[in-house]
Amino acid sequence: MTCFDRRDLGLLLLRLGTGGVLAAHGAQKLFGWFGGHGLEGTGQFMESVGYTPGKASATAAGLAETGGGALLALGLATPAAGATAAGAMAGAAAVHLPNGFFAQAGGYEYAATLGLAAAGLSVAGPGRLSLDHALGHVFDRGWMVPVALGVTAAATAVVVGARNCRVRLKEEGEQEALFEE
After folding, report:
1. What CA dihedral angle connects 26, 32, 34 and 35, to 10 degrees?
2. Helices in 75-108 by DSSP H: which ranges?
3. pLDDT per residue over 28-82, tens digit each?
């Protein structure tokens, strides 16, 4: 008989909480559930904050959050699930960065917390109360952790970097227009 310890229970709770919140957050984007705006509304928002094309960006973010969150909650493919969710949250944090840290002022606190929890789960693993464990860790090998985090970090840097360039160019264009008036 297998005996589960505090670590396994703690990882289960962390996976369920973090994964559940991420999945719900992504479902708002993809399906408009839980008071979300769906792909159309989220796509328009994404365009307004520099992620273009908006609908494709909304789809990518929604899939990363919903899929990564659901997989984290299940404890399946934990390195990839955690890395994917962390990348999506890094993209969200970039939008909120100018507002400072705290969420009450529109800051990046919420996105950073979810992203760090997802990345931490990617590194720590799912524990024994998981599908990864039940399947013999086929999708949770040690080498997968740095690969998943590295690939996600590179992709996130490209996407966020391109977004930051678009935002900066837009701001510079607006400043030039003010001087011309």
Report:
1. 120
2. 78-96
3. 999 999 999 999 999 999 999 999 999 999 999 999 999 999 999 999 999 999 9
10 sits in the region (left: phi over 0; alpha: psi -120 to 50; else beta) called alpha
Give 6: exposed, middle or buried? Use CB within 10 Å, 0-12, 13-18, 19+.
exposed
The pTM of this model reads 0.90
| pLDDT at residue 4, as a whole number | 76
Its sign, for the CA torsion 155, 160, 161, 163, is: positive
For 140, the 3-state DSSP assignment is coil
Instruction: List Cβ neighbours of 38 (8 Å cut-off, separation of 6 or more).
Output: 29, 30, 31, 32
pLDDT of residue 1: 42
Average pLDDT over residues 78-105: 97
Handedness of CA 114, 28, 39, 101 (dihedral sign): negative
Q: Tally Cβ neighbours within 10 Å of residue 176.
A: 9
* 168/22 Cα distance (integer angstroms): 29
